[in-house]
Amino acid sequence: MYKKYYNFKEDPFNVTSDPEFFFSSSHHMDAFSHLLYGIQERKGILVVTGEIGTGKTTLCRTLLSRLDQSVKTAFILNPNFSDTQLLQLIVKDLGIEGVYKNKLALNETLNKFLLEQSTMGNNVVLIIDEAQNLRANQLEQIRLLSNLETEKNKLLQIILVGQPELIGKLNLTSLRQLNQRIFVRYHVLPLKKDEIHKYINHRLKVASQSKNGHIPVKFTSEAIDALYLYSKGTPRLINILCDRALLFGYANELTTFNDEVIYKCAREVGQTSSP
Ligand SMILES: Nc1ncnc2c1ncn2[C@@H]1O[C@H](COP(=O)(O)OP(=O)(O)O)[C@@H](O)[C@H]1O
Ligand SMILES: [Mg+2]
User: Fold this and answer.
1) Is 26-188 the same fold as 3-9+193-268?
2) Which of 157, 228, 150 is nearest to 192 (CA)?
3) Would you say the CB of residue 53 lies under 6 angstroms from ligand 1?
4) What gap in Å lies between CA 160 and CA 129, rounded to an integer?
5) Crossing angle between the packed helical segments 259-268 and 221-231, to the nearest 10 degrees
6) CA of residue 62 to ligand 1 center, whole Å
7) How much distance in Å is there from the Cα of 59 to the middle of ligand 1?
8) 150 or 168: which carries more pLDDT confidence?
9) How far is the CA of 18 from the centre of ligand 1 (A)?
10) pLDDT the model gives residue 238
11) For a tag site, which of 36, 68, 134, 219 has the least CB within 10 Å?
């Protein structure tokens, strides 16, 4: 709504997980290198956890946009399906053609594809987001997929991404075999306090029309302190509050935002600061 007023080409604080806006925070970069390492070394199963809104999905999309052509990928946004449907989705997302109705046919097709890709020197990555929703039988299915290997390497690298309860699920005794195969684990933490201002300016710059990188709005250091108080560094909450602030600025012809504005916006979105 305020895009034109500030001369933005896009809303800077959208809550979608657009990789164009990716900010290289220390934790996100760390997560990124763990994932790249696990993929390049073909280590099998990798797990990324983090609270809601810490940037897990954005991290996945950024990873997908940066992998080269020799890495074939499938990205499952939410695994709320039966295990056969899940396999069908994986096969489809990998770009394998044909209709496969049962698990046996699906597994055979997938196995053939993985061997072909391996012969061509390619790697294959499957990312499952919201993996805390996976049921035990689906996790068992995933363990079976991770069994596919040559003498040296795993044919399929699987990244399970989810909220912290995913860890509890993987610790169940019935899933011990899967749990033991997890090679990389990373827990994404919120932004550090001193990264918040840079994060905001980064998003404003990406959204800005201006070629010389001029940012049309300013958040005072008191505003940044208030943002930290309410968000504890969680990007999603920062976005919600900054979006509100810009809307308020548009209605009141403001381009500089102080802590008062942030307090007001936090009240409006029902955000309370907890110790
Ligand atoms: N490193 C980052 N750079 C830019 N924006 C980010 C980053 N991390 C999170 N965000 C933003 O925060 C919001 C929530 O991120 P998301 O990836 O959906 O979190 P999660 O999947 O952990 O719930 C999105 O609007 C996203 O663009
Ligand atoms: Mg997500």
Assistant:
1) no
2) 228
3) yes
4) 6
5) 30
6) 10
7) 8
8) 168
9) 8
10) 98
11) 68
Measured in angstroms, how far is the CA atom of residue 169 from the centroid of ligand 1? 24
CA 167, distance to chain mean position in Å, is 17
Q: Provide the pLDDT for residue 275.
A: 53
Helix, strand, or coil (residue 89) = helix
Question: What percentage of residues in the chain have a pLDDT greater than 90?
Answer: 81
Find out whether the beta carbon of 56 lies less than 6 Å from any atom of ligand 1: yes
Instruction: Determine the atom of ligand 1 nearest the C-alpha atom of 161.
Output: 21
Q: Where are the domains of the chain?
A: 3-9+193-268, 26-188
Is residue 137 within 8 Å of residue 83, measured between CB atoms?
Answer: yes
CA distance 27 to 6: 31
**pLDDT for res 132:** 97
> Considering the domain 26-188 in this protein, what is its CATH number?
3.40.50.300
Q: 3-9+193-268 — its CATH code?
A: 1.10.8.60
